[in-house]
Write a structure and sequence with these properties.
The chain starts with a strand and ends with a strand. β5 and β6 form a beta hairpin. The strands form two sheets. The chain has a six-stranded mixed beta sheet, with no helix packed on it. A four-stranded antiparallel beta sheet has the order 1-3-8-7, with no helix packed on it. It is mostly beta strands. Helix content is 0%, strand content 47%.
Length: 116
């Protein structure tokens, strides 16, 4: 059974940093591209970052470019999202997904709140 479990969210002040993790199990992690999405209250979900299985291709939401970095450790079946210079508008539920879209498996998410 496929499982994606996110961790690392929390409350942080504007300008702060957080590192999210997504532990995958139940499938061959190395074979799939992986994505981070987020959804703020009352808004549609949006793609934050993506990384191909072979590390050759990344894609970022324009508003997070230069501030967020997606990475993966295939040996640990773990996807990461390093976030710095956080802004209040980054507040959302962040979740990881298998593949390029949300048509496959996704995790339950971890809450990120940026507030002073």
């Amino acid at each position: 059974e496929v499982h994606l479990v996110e961790s690392g969210g929390g409350l942080v002040e504007p300008g702060g940093s957080l590192n999210l993790s997504c532990l995958a199990s139940g499938f061959s992690f190395t074979s799939y591209p992986m994505s981070w999405y987020r959804q703020a209250p009352g808004k549609e979900h949006e793609l934050v970052a993506q990384l191909s299985s072979a590390f050759r291709s990344t894609n970022y939401l324009d508003s997070v470019k230069g501030r967020f970095t997606i990475s993966r450790d295939n040996a640990k079946s773990t996807l990461y999202l390093r976030m710095k210079s956080l802004k209040p508008e980054d507040t959302a539920l962040y979740f990881c997904a298998r593949g390029w879209t949300l048509t496959d498996y996704r995790g339950q998410g971890t809450q990120v709140t940026v507030s002073s």
